[in-house]
Design a protein that fits this description.
The structure holds two protein chains of two kinds.
Chain A (H helix, E strand, L loop, with lengths): L3 H6 L1 H21 L9 H4 L1 E9 L8 H15 L8 E5 L2 E7 L4 H7 L5 E11 L1 H9 L65 E2 H6 L60 H9 L20 E4 L5 E11 L3 E8 L6 E7 L1 H15 L8 E5 L2 E4 L11 E8 L1 H12 L6 E10 L5 H54 L6 H30 L5 H33 L2 H32 L3 H4 L30
Antiparallel strand pairs in A: 1-3, 1-13, 2-3, 4-5, 4-7, 4-10, 6-7, 8-9, 9-12, 10-11
Chain B lengths: L2 H7 L10 H21 L3 E2 L1 H4 L1 E6 L7 H10 L6 E5 L2 E7 L3 H14 L8 E5 L5 H25 L2 H25 L2 E2 L1 H29 L10 H11 L1 H26 L3 H32 L3 H13 L10 H9 L1
Parallel strand pairs in B: 1-6
Antiparallel strand pairs in B: 2-4, 2-5, 3-4
Helix pairs in contact in B: 2-7, 2-11, 6-7, 7-8, 7-11, 8-9, 8-11, 9-11, 10-11
Classes of the chains: A alpha+beta, B alpha+beta.
Chain lengths: 629, 334
């Protein structure tokens, strides 16, 4: 809020402050080369995407599940409520409309499931891809288990880089016969007969410290099952002190060549072990969205860039345990991270999970962060983490960290979707409506100007200039918010803004009528009246604006969609009203009061005796003022 | 002195509070008519609230948006929303009966040189339905409670009550006009209602602020009843109320005029009509509903009853409802 005290004595300084504010907004506009507001769906058109639910059975999902998905998608696409995006059901499909062209990327992220799970690592191996990456890149310091992680963890398969030129086509879902994870396997890779680029079998610890490419790395076809695992033997004697062994460790069912050599199978579900061997992380299909893992089962998964594959314990902490998620830069580094705050139950589980990992040996001292079935990072746990907070690192940039945080904050979608159509659509309103609205709005404001000048004469200039300042502030604020916060104007917004600017004149009227009261008492100079009247007018204006502001805040926080967006605009104009009155109208009138033309009550000033109801025979015949009542 | 000059000088003395019976009857009738309209006709909700159908096809020749709109209007569709999606046209209509849908399909096929099968028809759910509406209602409810609390603190509970009643009064009457006229309620209309909500309260707050200031001076020996003082305050802010309303209504009237005469049906008309009606009703209610209601509530308080009784017995005033109250007070003084 402005500073009434400084304007009391130094109107010039307050006006300069306002000028600085306007220049700052305008400067931002020029720096960002953004001169026009961002327009909403009705005015600018946008991108419309149809999402079709993908269910296991192919049957239509239950209505309430679909409704839940609609709500989550709406929150994700328009969580701030000011982007003017719309989400509607269409039969079993969901139609998302986002204003502006080229938004398909944004919609893609909106439609990802974002099922987050924390699982303790039971075993991990570097893949051929990881070897190649290590060969070309400098090894990352140990402690991070994710060298060269792709920057879009939630991206769908077609966005993932296909780093293996010789990558074979996905075989027609030769789904493993095991049914340990019935929901997780439909898009799973080649079965045992086609393990294209086979796992490297490189033990993790050495992978982290000595990035020697395995000699056995070529894309192989046929029945050559597993690469040798010599280094892995070192870990064969690992003690099974993990907490992950609910199930008895069973010997591997593989009769011929033991693929499990060197793997610490202690506590590992044999079926999952089998899946682990079958899992081909070089195939981008296994690293994309939509691998729905059962949180109550162990799970074999790939790292999002395909460099590692894992056997993971049951999920001890899941997405619904998250209270809020934010993105930010990790302290003391430049890496973008997603910060999580768990709910109380989640905090307890998280603490238990990290303690368990801390007390385990390599590689079971890691906790994998699994998003939509893919490991986005699996850091070493270097101490138990109480307190219910966690940070996810995973090679994020600002955008991807922000997007993941948004997805996690609003929860996972209860369904998997595929995009069945993407259209760029035109505006729903003709250009005539926008032009008509603007032209008539300007005509209306011009009428206001004429009226103010006729009625308030010289002082009407203050009212008119107040309107001009309010218009400038509104325009620049809307442009800056449009380009920095995604605020988009639909036609109702524009009309609302025009009307609000008109209402700004009201604050001037309230103030002016107060000045007149003070003058009527006949014992004050204009300069004194301006100050005394201000104290009383200020209270009225603040209470009235507070009411508007409460309306705006409550509706913004509680409503969704277009209502929230409109409430935002309402709050914005209320703030602008206060800024204009405190920083322009008041100090400007105070300045004018020093000018002889106004101070002496020239007939054209609007402050003449006639206007002020001051008859020459002072005091007689004039109406009772409230002050005398 | 002529009315214009008296207005200019701010010398108005109308006994608004004393005519409370007239206002209450007038508002009562308006409310009854509005509620009847809402019950009998209901609101004509737009496709955004109810869902509807989407027709899409790719015309063989280039056609304009207007031409497509005309086609649908001619077939009796109320407010078709016409969009282009690449080469295709995409028209959203209200939910149509099966026969009408098929008829439209063949009309489109004939007029745009495509086969009937090329015209794709899809049902679409409400983009403003369900959750959006539910949450808006919740927001409204919480907002009312928040405002009552705030005004109770800033002013007093009775003022809060009177302001909220006036607000509901404005919203119901505006909605009633939509019910009787059958104008479509679109999201734009809804946003117009929201603007009224803020505007109506804003107006009432400015009036109440003055009433609070004036009536604070009332004591056991004062020459005015609460009614008289409130009426004085009302007259005192009348210039402001009228000026403010005029200043706010001028742009809206301009938009309504252009929206209906030049452009015809569309967002502009939907929005500005709601605003126009709401602002007029809002101005009326802050003067003729909120204040008399406040006076009715306040005159029941023993301290103001005592003043009224004393003034009635001494002939210094004219009873609790204070007709001509302010004038007699002024005479007594001057």
């Amino acid at each position: 809020m402005a500073r009434p005290t400084s304007s009391h004595s130094k109107p010039g300084r307050t006006l300069l402050l306002l000028l600085a504010l306007i220049l700052a907004l305008a400067g931002t506009m020029f720096l960002q080369k953004a001169y026009t507001p961002k327009l909403g769906l009705d005015l600018a058109g946008g991108t419309t995407v149809t999402l079709s639910p993908v269910t296991q059975t192919g049957a239509a999902p239950p209505e309430e599940i679909l409704d839940r998905a609609v709500n989550i998608i709406r929150d994700r696409v328009n969580g701030t409520g000011i982007s003017d995006a719309e989400v509607a059901k269409s039969g079993d499909n969901i139609i998302i409309s986002i204003p502006g062209v080229g938004q398909s990327e944004a919609i893609k992220l909106v439609a990802t499931t974002a099922e987050l799970r924390f699982r303790q690592v039971l075993w991990m191996e570097m893949t051929q891809l990881g070897q190649e990456q290590l060969a070309t890149e400098a090894p990352t310091p140990s402690g991070s288990a994710s060298p060269g992680v792709s920057s879009s963890p939630g991206a769908s398969p077609d966005a993932s880089p296909d780093a293996t030129p010789a990558s074979p086509d996905a075989s027609p879902d030769a789904t493993p016969t095991t049914t340990v994870q019935p929901r997780s396997m439909p898009s799973r890779s080649p079965g045992g007969n086609q393990p294209s680029a086979s796992p490297t079998g490189k033990a993790l610890s050495s992978a982290l410290t000595s990035p020697v490419p395995s000699p056995s790395q070529t894309a192989r076809q046929g029945d050559d099952r597993q690469g040798d695992d010599k280094q892995g033997d070192k870990q064969g004697d690992q003690k099974g002190d993990q907490k992950g062994d609910q199930k008895a460790a069973t010997p591997t069912p593989e009769p011929s060549q033991d693929p499990n050599a060197g793997i610490n199978t202690d506590g590992v579900d044999p079926a999952v072990l089998k899946q682990f061997h079958a899992l081909d992380c070089t195939d981008p299909k296994n690293r994309g969205q939509g691998v729905q893992d059962d949180p109550n089962k162990q799970y074999a998964a790939c790292e999002s860039d395909g460099s590692f594959k894992y056997i993971l314990d049951v999920a001890k902490v899941v997405g619904t345990d998250i209270d809020t998620a934010t993105s930010g830069v990790q302290q003391g580094s430049t890496e973008w991270v997603v910060q999580l705050d768990f709910k109380s139950k989640g905090a307890t589980e998280w603490s238990k999970l990290t303690s368990a990992a801390f007390n385990s040996q390599e590689p079971r001292n890691k906790v994998a962060v699994v998003l939509d079935g893919v490991v986005i990072t699996a850091p070493n746990i270097i101490s138990p983490i109480p307190g219910g907070r966690a940070e996810i690192t995973g090679g994020f940039d600002q955008q991807s960290a922000g997007e993941l945080a948004e997805q996690l904050k609003y929860g996972a979608l209860p369904l998997k979707f595929e995009r069945s159509s993407i259209d760029t659509v035109s505006s729903t309103l003709g250009q005539d409506q926008l032009e008509g609205g603007l032209v008539s709005g300007i005509i209306g404001l011009a009428l206001v100007v004429v009226y103010c000048l006729l009625y308030y004469r010289g002082l009407g200039i203050v009212a008119v200039l107040s309107l001009v300042v309010a218009s400038i502030l509104t325009y620049t604020a809307v442009v800056v918010l449009g380009h920095n916060a995604g605020f988009r104007l639909s036609l109702p917004h524009i009309i609302g803004l025009v009307v609000s600017i008109g209402i700004t004149a009201d604050s001037f009227i309230v103030y002016f009528e107060r000045i007149r009261d003070e003058m009527k008492e006949g014992r004050r100079s204009l300069r004194a009246a301006v100050e005394v009247a201000w104290v009383r007018a200020r209270r009225t204006i603040l209470i009235a604006d507070a009411v508007m502001f409460i309306a705006a805040v409550v509706l913004y926080l509680l409503a969704v969609g277009g209502v929230a967006g409109f409430a935002f605009a309402m709050g914005l104009t209320t703030l602008i009203d206060i800024v204009v009155v405190f920083m322009f109208t008041k100090p400007f009138i105070a300045l004018l009061a020093r000018v002889k033309f106004f101070a002496k009550g020239h007939p054209l000033s609007g402050l003449d005796a006639e206007r002020m109801s001051l008859d020459s025979s002072t005091g007689s015949g004039h109406k009772t003022t409230p002050q005398e009542a | 002195m002529g009315l214009g000059r008296r207005l200019y000088r701010g010398e108005i003395d109308v006994d608004f509070v004393g005519k409370w019976r007239l206002w209450y009857s007038l508002s009562g009738i308006l409310l009854a008519i509005s509620i009847a309209g809402l019950l009998i006709n209901g609101l004509n909700l737009g496709v955004e609230f109810k869902g509807g159908s989407v027709f899409s096809w790719q015309p063989k020749t280039t056609v304009g948006i207007e031409q497509v709109r005309e086609t649908f209007l001619d077939e009796g569709v109320h407010q078709p929303i016409v969009q282009t999606a690449g080469e295709r046209y995409r028209v959203t209509t209200e939910t149509l009966p099966e026969s009408k849908t098929l008829e439209l399909q063949s009309v489109i096929a004939k007029e745009y040189g495509v086969t009937v099968d090329d015209v794709n028809i899809q049902s679409i759910g409400a983009s403003w339905g369900g959750e959006v509406s539910t949450k808006a209602w919740w927001g409204l409810a919480v907002f009312m409670v928040a405002i009552i609390l705030y005004l109770s603190m800033a002013f007093e509970p009775k003022m809060a009550l009177a302001a909220i009643v006036a607000l509901i009064h404005d919203l119901v009457i505006t909605a009633g006009i939509y019910a009787w006229s059958g104008f479509e309620v679109t999201p734009a209309t809804l946003l117009g209602f929201l603007t009224i909500l803020g505007y109506s309260l804003y107006d009432a707050v400015v009036v109440f602020d003055m009433i609070k200031e004036v009536t604070a001076k009332l004591g056991a020996t004062s020459k005015q009843t609460y009614s008289m003082a409130a009426n004085d305050a009302l007259n005192h802010t009348l210039i402001r109320s009228l000026n403010t309303s005029l200043v706010a209504i001028l742009p809206v009237a301009a938009i309504l005029f252009i929206g209906t005469t030049v452009l015809g049906a569309g967002t502009l008309k939907d929005l500005s009509l709601a605003l126009f009606v709401g602002m007029i009703v809002g101005t009326y209610s802050s003067i003729c509903v909120a204040t008399p209601l406040l006076v009715t509530l306040k005159e029941r308080e023993p301290r103001y009853q005592a003043i009224a009784r004393r003034l009635a017995s001494t002939g210094g005033g004219k009873g609790a409802k204070g007709s001509k109250g302010s004038r007699s007070a002024a005479t007594a003084k001057g």
